[in-house]
Design a protein that fits this description.
Length: 109
């Protein structure tokens, strides 16, 4: 039986499974949108994963309509640069926070 999913249901399903999906090798993110046939689906952005790996990602998601999208390599490089920038920025902020705590005698000072 093919259930017709609403945008809200797909967003809730994405939010429920997001950390697991994003943790899969070769997955770069998710979105809710139309697949190549115009049907509403959970889009999973991937880079260089095989059909078997797509099946492995899809199986635990049950009957959620999925669309695997392999973006242009330029887009993947852009996403990777954003991730690197964000990680470096977050680490720098954490270092500053910890130095401030050390100068002030810790969190209870």
């Amino acid at each position: 039986m093919n259930k017709k999913w609403t945008k809200e249901q797909l967003i809730a399903a994405r939010d429920l499974h997001k950390s697991w999906i994003d943790g899969q090798p070769g997955v770069y993110g998710t979105a809710v949108g139309n697949d190549h046939d115009g049907r509403l689906a959970l889009k999973i952005f991937v880079n260089g994963i095989s059909a078997d790996e797509m099946v492995r990602v899809a199986e635990p998601l049950g009957d959620i309509p999925l669309s695997f999208v392999e973006p242009d390599p330029t887009f993947v490089n852009y996403i990777e640069s954003l991730r690197s920038s964000f990680t470096s920025s977050t680490e720098s902020q954490n270092d500053c926070y910890h130095r401030r705590l050390d100068r002030n005698g810790g969190a209870n000072a």
